[in-house]
Amino acid sequence: MPSKAKTGKKLVIVESPAKSKTIAKYLGEGFIVEASIGHIRDLPQPSELPADLKKTSLGKFAVDVENDFKPYYVVSPDKKKKVAELKAQLKDADALYLATDGDREGEAIAWHLLEVLKPKVPVYRMTFGEITKEAIHRAMDNLRDVDAALVDAQETRRILDRLYGYEISPVLWRKVARGLSAGRVQSVVTRMVVDRERERMAFKSASYWDLTGQFGADSGSFKAKLAAVDGAKVATGRDFNDDGELTSRNVAHLNEELATSLAAALQDADFRVRSVDTKPYTRRPAAPFTTSTLQQEAGRKLRFSSKSTMQIAQRLYENGYITYMRTDSSALSDEAVTAARRQAAELYGPEYVPQSPRVYTSKAANAQEAHEAIRPAGDSFRTPAQVAKQLSGDEFRLYELIWKRTVASQMGDAKGSTATIRLGAVATDGRDAEFSASGTVITFPGFLAAYEEGKDESRGDDDSDEARRLPNVAKGDGLTASEIIAVGHETSPPPRYTEASLTAELEKKGIGRPSTYASTISTIQDRGYVRKQGSALVPSWIAFSVVRLLERHFTDYVDYEFTADMEGDLDKIANGQAVGAAWLKHFYYGEDADPGLLSIVNNLGEIDAREINSVPIADGITLRVGKFGPYLESSLPTVDPKTGEVVESARANVPEDLAPDELTAAKAVELMETAAPEERVLGTDPHTGHTVVAKNGRYGAYVTEIIPEMTEEQLANLPVEYYKNGKPKPPKKPVKAKPRTGSLFKSMTVESVTLDEALQLMSLPRVLGEDAEGNPITVQNGRFGPYLKKGTDSRSIGSEEEIFTITLEQALEIYSQPKQRGARAAVPPLAEFGPDPVSEKNIVVKEGRFGPYITDGITNITVPRSTSLEELTRERAVELLAEKRAKGPVKRTTTRKAPAKKAAVKK
Question: What is the C-alpha separation between 597 and 557, in angstroms, rounded?
């Protein structure tokens, strides 16, 4: 067979179209750059396996747990067309370059492409940390093979997550609620958020007091704070534990009475300077960004969520503005160090650049190899001003943050001095009071001229030195005192995690990978385990149930150290020091005294679902996590204050926006006392004889009738059906009649609604009459308010009360007017973002049936749970609409009944 003629074409495959366009500019003629658009194949759902494989050892996970955990991969349905296109391009190519990202995920994508495309031409693995002309050319000079160890690590992690989720999640479905999921990292992260809330719930505050005063000298005035009384340090928040107990010895704990009396006794005291201490101040710049520190700082300074940060960084990388954004390394290449030092000298002066370059190493647990820090791309950096017109608003802000941090990392230390003045006086009651004031003066800003790192919320008193200049005073100088006042304080509970502080803690503990933090934090919000309250992460009560079950029955699998050790084991596989199949065997089947996951799942024993879903709140009051959400239940008999009846087991709903630590014993009692009755009997319908009741339901208050069960006598009197042979058929269970119901108007309550009003509500819809064509017109109440209906034509009316007063003539008048499309759109949108670049229609955010959604009038997409309206940007809105368009319309499945078989014709 003759060999294929040389075409001179070389096929380069990357992950994304944006990346392919940027690379194509630098490779020139002869190279065809295509995008795989992420992974082309993955593990299928077990239900999607071929029928002959479902009953084999592959059937449970699509992983052969009896044969070295060999996975069964399938090309994703939405990637079959892409694979066909790549195969067609490969037919005309002389070489294949796999240029996916250089991390484990990118290596796995390259390997899958190799397995599926089965190229018959030379194959080269090509990696680069930035998309610039220089970097691409350097990558072409350093080609290699696909790294089998990195692929093994990624595949092991994928199978591990499948085993974990598929074995543990069903336990949650049975004992907590359907639809819940467990994940190797997500469950541990959820536990961290729950643990912090538990600390807040157990916290007992303590009060303490101190004094502040304004003091004057010839050279100026300054503010100082009481530091000691009679030589004993004044107690601050740090001197108390979380039980509200004073733990420090030899401190003066001032209460309100002691503090106010001391302030009064110092009003006319003779204050003098007791000491002046000056120390040199030096501060070094922060290291260049890693994935983790970029997410943290973008959260603090730009108010970006971790997910938004990574999406914006991805665009900046793919378009050649920054280096690869998934990295644990804070090191800079020699070219980057030179570029940063040169730019710092040009912009701020040579004196701002130290003689020797700064060298940074990663301090995170389980730091992963692979890349340098996140920095501006290129061997020379573009300033923010030079790229401003090419970037969107959020892209510019993130690029500017990365540029400032990188340049500052190679600048000199900030230098100055910190002065501390101790001053005091003897009060009229004989107590000796000593005050203190500190101030830092920066004499050389160094890196601060370019950048200053943000900080997360911390506990205790803010004793940081203010950037202020204190007056020039000497020991023994007299001072005038004014505004000496007593100030009360309460100790504060541990602050809730924000996305930034949670990311920092995950990195510190070595849990998960920085590259997955954004998706993990987004997942626990989308699953309903965590919600945002401002920027704070608040766990739901269902998260408490999930974590409690996992802690008791899957202890290791939500243990922080165990989870971090798993990351270390995956690193060993990536480095070729271990083999994935052997590690998975030990994890799943166990070894010797170390039980595996399978053994633990098979020997769970009895799990008390009611106890798992219960949290004692106060004496006799327990929070239950039920099918329709959390509620309080009292085990103590209580007396209804309105009826005087004794209620054996009262219940009360828990407001959705009430954080767990806010549900104190006092709050629980208040909710129980103010809870509306679950059911109130209104009377008997005179026409049917049925009892009518008002109830509080999941979707609001409503009225309904109670249809009694048929008596034995009535059942016995039902007509009997017979078979053809004359024998009687077994009696059928009678079809239960559907009770009439009606939602209460907004002006009504369960306590106030009357029987007459209930009968009216249950009579809806109300028939008004017919139009000229004989079409009936009705009026009814709906989820979005009262409305008229004629066939498929619905029209809103003013108020609920009009439902019982509107006439046919008034309805006909409304229908004679042109229909106001989107009459509800008169409600102003929640946000507006200007025209969409594709449809050129205005982008707005509206409140919909299932929450806020983004629309340009053509395409709609729900705002993700993990994104609050406050942090939703125009760029993110445009991106979400683009993603929805790319997916195309939702395919709706239809079930078609098989035609009935015809009876065989007897001949």
Answer: 9
HSE (side-chain half, CA atoms, 13 Å) at 39 = 16
Q: Kindly tell me if the per-residue pLDDT of 639 is higher than 90.
A: no
* Distance, CA of 286 to CA of 300 (rounded, Å): 15
Average pLDDT over residues 704-709: 87
**What pTM does this model have?**
0.76
State the Cα–Cα distance between residues 411 and 59, nearest whole angstrom: 59
Task: Read off the tokens for 380.
Answer: 């020379």
pLDDT for residue 690 is more than 60? yes
Distance CA 694, CA 751 (A): 8
Model confidence at 424: pLDDT above 90: yes
Is residue 156 very low, low, confident or very high in pLDDT (cuts 50, 70, 90)? very high
Top mean-pLDDT range of 195-209, 645-659, 823-837 = 195-209
Q: Cα 205 vs. chain centroid, distance in angstroms?
A: 29
- The helix/strand count (H/E) of the chain reads as 25, 38
Task: Render 549-589 in DSSP notation, one character per residue.
Answer: HHHHHSGGGG-HHHHHHHHHHHHHHHTTSS-HHHHHHHHHH
Q: Select the more confidently predicted residue: 94 or 782.
A: 94
* Res. 354: pLDDT tops 90: yes
| H/E element, 233 | strand 232-234
Task: State how far the alpha carbon of 650 is from the alpha carbons of 610, 640, 753, in Å.
Answer: 17, 9, 21
Burial class (CB in 10 A: 0-12, 13-18, 19+), 318: buried
CB 409 within 8 A of CB 285: yes
- 55 and 163 in contact (C-beta within 8 Å)? no
- 376 prior amide bond cis, ω within 30: no
Nearest residue to 286 (alpha-carbon basis) of 220, 330, 248, 321: 330
What is the DSSP pairing of strand 700-706 with strand 741-743?
Answer: antiparallel
Task: Give the torsion sign (CA, 577, 582, 588, 594).
Answer: negative
Q: Which residues are catalytic?
A: 324
Position 842 confidence tier, pLDDT thresholds 50, 70, 90: confident
Burial classification of residue 476, based on how many CB atoms lie within 10 Å of its CB (0-12 exposed, 13-18 middle, 19 or more buried): exposed
Long-range contacts of 662-668 (CB under 8 A, 24+ apart): 663/617, 663/623, 664/617, 665/617, 665/618, 665/619, 665/621, 666/618, 668/617, 668/618, 668/621, 668/623, 668/632
Mean pLDDT of 321-344: 92
Q: How far apart are CA 526 and CA 529, in angstroms?
A: 8
Strands 621-626, 629-634: pairing is antiparallel
Find the helix or strand (DSSP H, E) in which 20 lies: helix 17-27
Please report the pLDDT score of residue 563 as a whole number: 94
CA pair distance 436, 432, nearest whole angstrom: 14
Calculate the dihedral angle through the C-alpha atoms of 524, 530, 531, 532, rounding to the nearest 10 degrees.
Answer: -90
Q: Tell me, what amino acid is at 769?
A: G
d(CA 780, CA 798) in angstroms, rounded, equals 12
Model pLDDT, residue 828: 67
CB-CB neighbours of 862 under 10 Å: 13
Element (H, E) at 309: helix 306-318
Sequence-distant (6+) residues with CB within 8 A of 255 are: 207, 208, 209
Residue 534 corresponds to which amino acid?
G
25 vs 22: CA distance, rounded Å: 6
Q: Please check the confidence at residue 574 and state whether its pLDDT lies above 90.
A: yes
- Cβ–Cβ < 8 Å for 790, 777: yes
**Lowest-pLDDT range, 361-365, 389-393, 402-406, 880-884?**
361-365
Are 99 and 199 in contact by the 8 Å Cβ rule? The answer is: no
User: What is the predicted pLDDT for the residue at 367?
Assistant: 46
pLDDT class of 849 with cuts at 50, 70, 90: low
